[in-house]
Design a protein that fits this description.
This protein is α/β, with parallel strands linked by helices. Helices cover 28% and strands 19% of the residues. A 7-stranded mixed beta sheet has the order 8-7-16-17-18-15-19, sandwiched between helices. Strands 10-2-1-14-20 form a 5-stranded parallel beta sheet, with helices on one face. Strands 5-9-6 form a 3-stranded antiparallel beta sheet, covered by helices on one side.
């Protein structure tokens, strides 16, 4: 049975409403396909969303991007939300040395030098290491950048073992290399893939002088991604369905039968648009779910081995959220070495705490990748451990106990990016006509990041629609010219103060995490009724978190910047890795 409409548009069903699914649906709809998106959770966003906790917005992880993430930057340009993000004019990471409690920074030089020579001043000025070790680290970086990460030999190697064999001792590994790679690979160096580490260093630091400049959201992730995607997809005529679970996908003539059921509080009800048997029909399908779910939905005849998808495994991330009665750190973020703490992000304004009080309080989120040591630890013990470490490192934290501490856990934040993982990652193609895979676990050439998710979605849209007369564009083309994005309704801007996030690796959405015991804090419950079309999360209805820094839609200029202590950089709350 053909699912094409009377106008001959091929009908694409996208299963999964995270970044990969959003990207696939948008580029397909822009190219002229009729698109239906199915998402099991109450809202779009997948691993990059937010939930309410009292008066605060809590993001499901500290997600950030870099200037080299052209596909992701193209996506936010296409969504019309670039003005709700900040991108550093140059890489600048303040670093606290936990052993001596002194500070340094990893900062790109303002002198115009061609890549990779631009890296030399940054390393030479990085006082976390003795001068001789800085020089050796620079030589190792250039050698690392020359590796072929697609080589089976490199893919099977351990990053930590490679570092040791190239003169990088424990101090350099901890203070420099793991500072860069633990947040992107979500594993310590000894366990991480050499090939993916080489990709991070080469693309993020060596290929272009400005590639590693860090960017982050200035609004809750649900507003930046899910709400904006809903608006953009609706504007181009896509049919977006949330609270819908896909039971199976089977071949049906030249197309596909997608069996669906309502989930959540509407469990058992008919899904609008489905036939009496509970099925939707598609000419093409993009399966944009996490790897384990994808393994369970692969149709018969797929060349992708479901056992390999399960073999990818997973690595956890935890976030420790602390609200102090007074300011503890300056600036939007801080990296810490020689300490259990990895990255600290100031979310005072972004969460809404600045608006809701108490006056002078500061909300800090500690993002902990490679979180195996803490993932099963009781929340109270985690809170005690990190509260005591904050008191050791910061005089202000010793002088004022936190008002509140809570923990969120993402047990399956990323696939396990170990040696040999490249051989397990499938491409977009499944060997089945017009059926493709998308997700950070697919072979995009990138680690499990937001950039990987978006690239996978574009690749899957092209693969699934190949031969149907649909020419799928490239979101990366929009990265440097956000004004060229197709006009879509802007995400509603709200009055005046509250919300945002950004940071390491990836994390799972609150609904899924709560279901598998992932979050220590329960998100707000979904609506009792499943609407015919999903409603955006109400993060869009809250004041603009940037306050005086707020700008008109489409503008990238900040107004009335708030100092962060970082040279040539200002923001009201931001976050990297």
């Amino acid at each position: 049975m053909s699912a094409a409409g009377t106008d001959g548009q091929p009908h694409l069903v996208v299963i999964g409403g995270g970044l990969a699914g959003m990207a696939a649906a948008l580029v397909a709809a822009d190219a002229g396909a009729r698109v239906t998106m199915l998402e099991a959770r109450p809202r779009l966003g997948g691993a990059t969303t937010s939930f309410r906790r009292g008066e605060l917005w809590i993001d499901t992880g500290q997600h950030v991007f870099m200037r080299c993430c052209t596909a992701y930057r193209g996506l936010i340009a296409r969504l019309g939300v670039t003005h709700l993000t900040t991108l550093q004019p140059r890489l600048d990471v303040p670093v606290l040395l936990g052993a001596t409690q002194t500070r340094t920074r990893l900062r790109r030089t303002s002198v115009r030098l061609p890549a990779p020579l631009h890296l030399a001043p940054a390393l030479l000025g990085y006082k976390a290491l003795p001068l001789a070790e800085r020089i050796r680290a620079g030589l190792a970086a250039f050698q690392l950048g020359r590796l072929d990460e697609r080589s089976p030999r490199v893919d099977s190697g351990s990053f930590g073992a490679w570092l040791a064999s190239h003169g990088q001792g424990p101090a350099a590994t901890s203070a420099l290399w793991e500072l860069l790679t633990v947040a992107t690979l979500n594993l310590p160096a000894d366990e991480a893939s050499l090939g993916l580490a080489a990709k991070v260093v080469r693309t993020g630091l060596l290929e272009a002088a400005d590639a590693g400049d860090i960017g982050w959201a200035e609004v809750p992730l649900s507003r930046l991604h899910g709400d904006a995607a809903l608006a953009a997809l609706t504007a181009v005529g896509a049919d977006v369905r949330t609270g819908v679970k896909v039971r199976s996908v089977t071949a049906d003539g030249a197309g596909w039968r997608v069996a669906v059921t309502a989930g959540g509080t509407s469990r058992g009800e008919a899904v609008p648009g489905a036939d009496p048997s509970g099925s939707l029909y598609a000419d093409a399908v993009v399966l944009a779910t996490p790897a384990p779910a994808a393994a369970g939905l692969l149709p018969d005849g797929a060349t992708v081995d479901a056992r390999r998808l399960h073999a990818l495994g997973d690595s956890p991330i935890i976030n420790v959220h602390m609200i102090y009665p007074r300011q503890v750190i300056e600036g939007p973020f801080l990296a810490v070495v020689d300490s259990p703490i990895q990255w600290i992000f100031d979310r005072t304004i972004s969460s809404g705490l600045a608006a809701s009080g108490p006056p002078g309080a500061q909300y800090l989120a500690l993002s902990q990748s490679a979180a195996e040591p803490w993932i099963n630890m009781p929340a109270g013990d985690v809170a005690t451990l990190f509260t005591e470490e904050m008191a050791r490192l910061f005089p202000a934290a010793r002088a004022a106990e936190p008002i509140e501490v809570f923990v969120t856990r993402e047990r399956t934040a990323t696939f396990r990016q170990v040696p040999g993982s490249l051989a397990l990652r499938p491409g977009a193609s499944t060997g089945l006509a017009h059926f493709a895979l998308a997700g950070t676990y697919t072979d995009t050439g990138w680690p499990a990041t937001m950039e990987s998710a978006v690239r996978s979605g574009v690749a899957a849209a092209r693969e699934s629609l190949a031969g149907m007369g649909v020419v799928v564009g490239d979101l990366a083309d929009l990265a440097e010219r956000p004004s060229a994005a197709p006009a879509v309704p802007a995400v509603p801007a709200a009055p005046a103060v509250s919300a945002v996030s950004a940071g390491p690796a990836v994390s799972a959405g609150p609904a899924a995490s709560a279901a598998r015991g992932g979050l220590a804090v329960e998100p707000r419950q979904a609506s009792d009724d499943l609407p015919d079309r999903p409603e955006p999360s109400d993060s869009s209805d809250f004041p603009d978190p940037r306050g005086a820094n707020a700008t008109a839609a489409g503008s990238t200029a900040a107004v009335g910047p708030v100092t962060t202590g970082q040279q040539e950089h200002s923001s009201t709350g931001g976050f990297p890795v």
